């Protein structure tokens, strides 16, 4: 199993890079709710570094941690919880029953009812991570210095079983229906434990590593991130959410949570599904062009307005696209009749003048 998995994974990585599988549409207009920023931490004289782990408590607060201290984060700010630990924290996650599990070096530990931390068992290697499923826990090896990297399932009762070995560090594991999504190197794989089937879902080109995965179960959408980008995936539709930052992801309360430990911020992206739908629609509207460079017309603008894109986003699309607008008097009247705003029409005129492409007979 391990030999065949290695061959399949290596071949899929190569195919991913050759094909450039993350075809994207860039969306600029997102609403950010900042729960924690570097400035906020500086004002509170917080100088520690957070580890790459995050979970959500039963009280809907975010649990994050430094190497030896847990913190709770909510709209009221950041506060310590519990005592400082005498062991280092590598990773943590709540079990489906609500117990907090901690990985310290090569030991899996748990907190008892008195708040004391106890060893459950010794893990095969140091630096492993843990994540929760609906009924089980997953433990995986992300240590780059190991020759192989195992994924284990931890069932109730404390027994753990190896699912497979991967040739590259496993960065993130999440459940989706009856399958597992696994971030490994520059690709996301779908793994079916029942029949051991492995399928490549998406990859990113360049020297990027996919660091985190999150699932929106309502819309069956997958989110994945590197250190510098966040993308969304559903079926074959892939949309670039941002190329300004990345981080650890969780989908929570109809918003995408992004926790960036390097820059010490945690934000929630809101109304993201509407932006994704609009971006996909824009791509479909322009995909019929036979030109290698997409050309937008009056009809494109009307479609964007009908799909409820903001004026700000439409103007940004105009400014970065090749245009061929009809700016005659009759066309201007028709655009206004389709609820195209004056700022958008002004941007159409400016882009046409700059590119020298418009039909301006009898133009305003």
Q: What does this entry look like structurally?
A:
- This protein has seven helices and 26 strands.
- By secondary structure, it is of the alpha+beta class.
- Strand 8 (107-111) and strand 9 (117-122) form a beta hairpin.
- It starts with a helix and ends in a 9-residue tail after the last helix.
- The strands form seven sheets. A four-stranded antiparallel beta sheet has the order 1-24-23-22. Strands 2-3-4-5 form a four-stranded antiparallel beta sheet, with no helix packed on it. It has a four-stranded antiparallel beta sheet with strand order 6-7-8-9, with no helix packed on it.
- The protein folds into two domains: 2-271, Methylamine Dehydrogenase, Chain H (7 Propeller); 288-355, no CATH class.
How do the strands and helices of this protein lay out in sequence?
Layout: H1 2-19, E1 31-36, H2 38-43, E2 55-56, E3 62-65, E4 70-74, E5 77-81, E6 91-94, E7 100-104, E8 107-111, E9 117-122, E10 128-132, E11 137-141, E12 149-154, E13 160-166, E14 170-176, E15 179-184, E16 187-192, E17 197-203, E18 212-216, E19 221-225, E20 230-234, E21 237-242, E22 248-252, E23 255-260, E24 265-270, H3 272-286, E25 295-296, H4 298-306, H5 311-319, E26 322-323, H6 329-337, H7 342-355
Parallel strand pairs: 25-26
Antiparallel strand pairs: 1-24, 2-3, 3-4, 4-5, 6-7, 7-8, 8-9, 10-11, 11-12, 12-13, 14-15, 15-16, 16-17, 18-19, 19-20, 20-21, 22-23, 23-24
């Amino acid at each position: 199993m391990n030999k065949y998995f290695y061959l399949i994974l290596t071949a899929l990585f190569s195919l991913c890079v050759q094909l450039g599988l993350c075809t994207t549409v860039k969306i600029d207009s997102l609403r950010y709710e900042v729960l924690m920023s570097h400035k906020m931490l500086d004002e509170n004289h917080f100088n520690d570094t957070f580890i790459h782990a995050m979970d959500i408590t039963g009280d809907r607060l975010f649990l994050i941690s430094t190497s030896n201290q847990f913190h709770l984060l909510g709209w009221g700010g950041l506060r310590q919880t519990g005592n400082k630990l005498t062991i280092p924290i590598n990773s943590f996650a709540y079990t489906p029953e609500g117990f907090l599990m901690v990985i310290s070096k090569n030991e899996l530990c748990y907190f008892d009812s008195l708040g004391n931390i106890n060893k459950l068992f010794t893990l095969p290697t140091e630096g492993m991570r843990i994540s929760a499923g609906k009924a089980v826990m997953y433990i995986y090896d992300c240590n780059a210095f190991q020759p192989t990297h195992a994924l284990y399932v931890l069932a109730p009762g404390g027994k753990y079983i190896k699912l497979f070995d991967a040739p590259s560090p496993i960065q993130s594991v999440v459940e989706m229906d009856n399958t597992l999504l696994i971030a490994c190197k520059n690709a996301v794989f779908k793994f079916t434990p029942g029949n051991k089937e492995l399928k490549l879902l998406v990859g990113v080109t360049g020297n990027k590593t996919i660091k985190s995965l999150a699932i929106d179960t309502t819309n069956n959408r997958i989110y994945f991130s590197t250190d510098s980008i966040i993308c969304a995936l559903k079926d074959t539709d892939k949309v670039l959410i941002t190329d300004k930052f990345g981080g650890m992801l969780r989908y929570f309360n109809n918003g995408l949570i992004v926790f960036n430990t390097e820059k010490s911020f945690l934000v929630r992206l809101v109304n993201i599904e509407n932006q994704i739908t609009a971006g996909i629609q824009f791509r479909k509207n322009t995909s019929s062009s036979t030109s290698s460079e997409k050309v937008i017309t009056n009809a494109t603008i009307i479609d964007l307005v009908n799909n409820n894109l903001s004026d700000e986003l439409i103007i940004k699309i105009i400014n970065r696209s090749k245009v061929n607008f009809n700016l005659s008097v009759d066309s201007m009247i028709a655009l206004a009749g389709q609820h195209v705003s004056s700022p958008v029409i002004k941007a159409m005129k400016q882009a046409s003048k700059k590119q020298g492409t418009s039909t301006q007979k009898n133009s305003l």
